[in-house]
Amino acid sequence: MAVSLQAEVRKDATKSEIKQLRSQGKIPAVMYGKQMAPTVLSVDLKELQVVLRQNPHAIIDLTISGGKGRQPVMINEIQRNPLNRQLTHIDFHQINMDEPIKTLVALEFIGEAAGVTEGGILQIQMHNIEIRCMPSQVPPSIQVEVSSLGLGDNLHVSQIMVPAGIEIKSDPNDIVVTILVPQKETETPQAANNEERVGEAETSNEAATAGQPS
User: Fold this and answer.
1) I want to staple 79 with a disulfide (CB 3.0 to 4.6 A). Which of 1, 40, 89, 194 is the partner?
2) CB-based contacts of 124, cutoff 8 Å, min separation 6
3) What ranges does the record list as Polar residues composition bias (predicted)?
4) How far apart are CA 174 and CA 164, in angstroms?
5) Which residues of the chain form CATH 2.40.240.10?
């Protein structure tokens, strides 16, 4: 399912103009595709953040002012300030709805692993997988059932079930999730020595007490 986003066509700007744009709550963007020249845009930061929270890999129905109309796009690259992690620039890739695409899709883990109920720890190794399908078939997420996993078990990419028409492109041998066996608590030599010393002291005290007149 596509999500919607508004964009405005802008001209190439100087650093000061870009700074002013960001002060207005917008960030610079660019849209490009196979049969189109790159288009310089700006988008509202808050609206973009909503889209990113919903699904950063979704197909976006981008409505562009200035005669460009609506374009189906996907986010190709996000740039952030390395210090404060604020969004600074975004690249959109225009897609053809009649051609298959490759994209990342989030994994949704469902069920409670049997190994977890036995005290194990569920460790997620992969949060997304790469798939190939028609744009209209891209799911918001792919469910991964983990309830059958016991202590020490792994689930690989090859074990993930996907709907017809979707091809998984990630390495089938990659581990998606594993159930860690809990570590047994072992007594340290220092603790054992301390217990022995305490025991020796108690024995000595008992012996000394036994030798005293009552």
Assistant:
1) 89
2) 109, 176, 177
3) 202-214
4) 22
5) 3-95
